[in-house]
Predict the structure.
Amino acid sequence: MLTGSEVKSLRGGLLSMEEAYGRVQGNEVWLIGTNIQEYTYAHRLNHVPKRPRKLLLHRREIRKFAAQAYEKNLTLVPLKMYFCRGRAKVLMGICRGKKQYDKRESLKKKAMQRDMERGS
């Protein structure tokens, strides 16, 4: 559910979903961490850029997401946002987070890459 100034900002491409994720609370799905910049021409009727936004889903979709996310400890991740027939749509994916040993391995690779770039 979006306000008018949020839709105008989306059409202008002022969206960042880098830290965004979905959360199932009760019978609702919320998009948290999405940054939609303020629309410059809205003035006092502007929106809060990082507010939680309710996603409108069918009951069976909510049940499916909730069951998978809760039972298997998975996360809902927004992949892209687009317009279809004048409505803003969000493509959501279900993913598993990295294990601790995978995180350590990634940090080692980054450190080695940084050292190689400094050396040359």
Q: What stands out?
A: The radius of gyration is 18 Å. DSSP finds three helices and seven strands in the chain. The helical segments are 4-11, 59-71, 100-119. The chain has one domain: 4-119.
